[in-house]
Amino acid sequence: MNKIREYTKKLFRLYMILFFILGMYIGYIQVAKSGEFMSNTDNPRNYEKMNLRGTIFTRDGKPLAISRDEVKPSGRAFPEKNIYEPYLGYLSVKFGKGGLEDKLDKFLRFSTKNTDFIDYLMRKETKGENVYLTIDPRLQQAAVKALGERKGAVVMMNPRTGEILALASYPSFDPDKLDKDWKKLTSDKDSPFLIRPVNGSYPPGSVFKLFTLASCIEEGVVTPDTVFDCSGDYAMDYELGTYHIREAGGAAHGSVTAVDALVHSCNVGFAQMGLKLGKNKFYEYAGKFGFTEKPDFMLCETEPGFPAKDVLTPTQLAQVAFGQGELTLSPLSIALMTSAFANGGKICKPQIIKSRVDEKGKVVYKCEAEVWKTPVSMETAKKVRDAMIQVVERGTGTAARMDTIKVAGKTGSAENPFGETHAWFTCFAPAEDPKILIVVIVENGGGGGKTAAPVAKELLDLYFSKPGTQK
Q: Would 155 disulfide with which of 202, 387, 439, 452, CB 3.0-4.6 Å?
């Protein structure tokens, strides 16, 4: 009997330990993991009452995503179809959420937690917040039209505030036909779900020369008047022999200043600038411009493809200095870099949410300009800006020149290992007091001055043709 009592006690202790562990695990699920499980779309208790979901608007109040009880199967409709896709996103009972519908879900969803005491006593469910984007519908439609059916992207932003005014991406899709087209969309090699302005990853080509010039001027290793010799072929010794950096089309620019190297997009000159700066400082300034981290922007999913410092051998450094080599960046990253030269050396945090309003009409959030990075001084930014003006006035960017407004810009023709050259153009205007910044990339579009700059010019003409709707 004593042995039975002893075994019983041991068994009881074991069960108590097991119950304690089970209790701790249940507590962990209910407390620490409750938010994750409650937000999981597979949770049957997480069924959303679509008539209580908030609306997404443009900055001037045009509805982009609305809830209707009669809309089946999701109860969500997108009146503007594919103009705002893919960044606006989708909502599907079968396939979940994407884009801003997903990123803003915690604000758009109805809430069972009510802060109004009377509503709480009446068990009233709170409708989700309405979200106003920074997007200007006139500019968005113009950007989509200007890009047309060419694979690529357009970013339009206010460089002084970081507000995104338009994001055009092609190819795109119709969110109202998502369930029907899902299989075709997900198997499409052109990736219509990819938000190209934000998450597209491309070799930047010569638009990246702005970074190299600014870093070298800021560090004092060159001035705008520093002279470089370009014979069209710059030979570098390395472990496997001799590496040659050549100009496009066999051009030879002769003796050029740093400014003229930008104006004529001289690869040889910028290779020499990169080597003068050195890999340590080159990488340091990459961090200052935000190229070594993901931009602080809710739609960003991909990290910049900036090479690690130990990868920057002299030949790699020389290539990256003019935007080639092991380097890929998004159009948004190029826009943020360019904004430093439009905004006195400061890069503002990119914003796409203008405000959020609750069901009672109270503004619960309003965006304010916030400095993200300050990579260079105001003096350096002005010198680079002046060089960009020369690019448009007498260099590779003349296709973007305007009659009465000065434009500061830079072309890029990025060699692409997977196909034809990508065409880039980045610019802002008026150059002395920038109101609008535009970045254009046309995939496999050839020369930036020939293909991308005219797209930007079309948008500049429209922007300055009459006052915009920005408020």
A: 439
How buried is residue 22: exposed, middle or buried, by Cβ count under 10 Å (0-12/13-18/19+)? exposed
Structural contact between residues 246 and 232, judged by C-beta atoms closer than 8 angstroms: yes
Q: Exposed/middle/buried for 242, CB within 10 Å: 0-12, 13-18, 19+?
A: exposed
Q: Which residues, in sequence order, are CB contacts of 142 under 8 Å at separation 6+?
A: 166, 458, 459, 462
* pLDDT for residue 153: 98
Q: Exposed, middle or buried: residue 423 (CB in 10 Å: 0-12, 13-18, 19+)?
A: buried
Residues in the chain: 471
First to last CA, the chain: 87
Phi and psi, residue 220, nearest 5° = 85, 15
Structure tokens at 264: 């004529």
Asked if the bond preceding 73 is cis, omega within 30° of 0, the reply is yes
pLDDT in tens, 343-385: 999 999 999 999 999 988 999 999 999 999 999 999 999 999 9
CB 412 within 8 A of CB 208: yes
